User: Which sequence fits this backbone?
């Protein structure tokens, strides 16, 4: 049995929490639905789904996305294919090996290629008669070689980076601690558990927290940690609330 931390529910009643489900693709929809059932059972009131447009969607899959919208879930752009077939250099290769599992497609592109990918991502939603997304999250939170000033010219209003939420309008970065649960190896489990412990502590001073859920997380080593965090952090917010005058 895997080790888990002992934590008291309702420990963080004033921390506003952004909950997102990553890698929404046709092949992950059964896992996404399972996660959404858990979030509904835990009464998570705001959930953002990170959709990968170039993943081979069918009519049935698009209907599922429309159903998600109808249920009140926000859809966000999340790259294009969520994988890379080539590496942009040694740092990208190391990033793929140890961090991103070869999904950080921005890192293989120059600034022009990144802009093109993001514009295609945004346009795809309108082509499918879905609501235009206001949030963009690069795969593995790796934005790559593009200046922040260039992001302001793109159609997204905000961007989620590894360090926090960036406002396209003001250029301000709002640092927000991040919890993750994608512990698919024995080494990743203790490292992620330590990372999450530090970020739970940081959230008490920050007042904000992000919970990022990946499709396989309920079957990995930190599944119980995820369930416990959903019970501890009960105040939920939409990404649009970040940067409010009172935040």
Assistant:
């Amino acid at each position: 049995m895997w080790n888990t931390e002992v934590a008291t529910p309702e420990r963080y009643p004033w921390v506003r929490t952004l909950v997102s489900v990553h890698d929404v693709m046709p092949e992950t929809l059964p896992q996404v639905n399972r996660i959404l059932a858990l979030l509904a059972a835990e009464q998570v009131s705001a959930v953002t789904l990170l959709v990968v447009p170039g993943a081979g969607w069918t009519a049935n899959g698009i209907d599922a996305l429309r159903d998600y919208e109808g249920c009140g879930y926000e859809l966000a752009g999340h790259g294009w294919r969520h994988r890379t077939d080539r590496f942009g250099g040694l740092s990208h290769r190391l990033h793929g090996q140890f961090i991103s599992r070869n999904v950080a497609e921005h890192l293989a592109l120059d600034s022009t290629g990144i802009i093109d990918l993001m514009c295609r991502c945004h346009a795809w939603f309108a082509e499918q008669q879905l609501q235009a997304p206001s949030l963009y999250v690069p795969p593995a939170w790796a934005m790559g070689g593009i200046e922040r000033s260039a992001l302001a010219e793109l159609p997204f209003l905000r961007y989620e980076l590894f360090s926090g939420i960036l406002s396209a309008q003001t250029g301000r970065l709002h640092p927000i601690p991040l919890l993750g649960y994608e512990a698919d190896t024995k080494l990743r489990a203790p490292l992620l558990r330590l990372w999450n412990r530090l970020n739970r502590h940081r959230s008490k001073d920050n007042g904000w927290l992000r919970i990022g859920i990946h499709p396989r997380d309920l079957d990995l080593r930190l599944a119980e940690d995820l369930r416990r965090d959903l019970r501890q952090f009960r105040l939920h917010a939409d990404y649009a609330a970040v940067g409010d005058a009172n935040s």
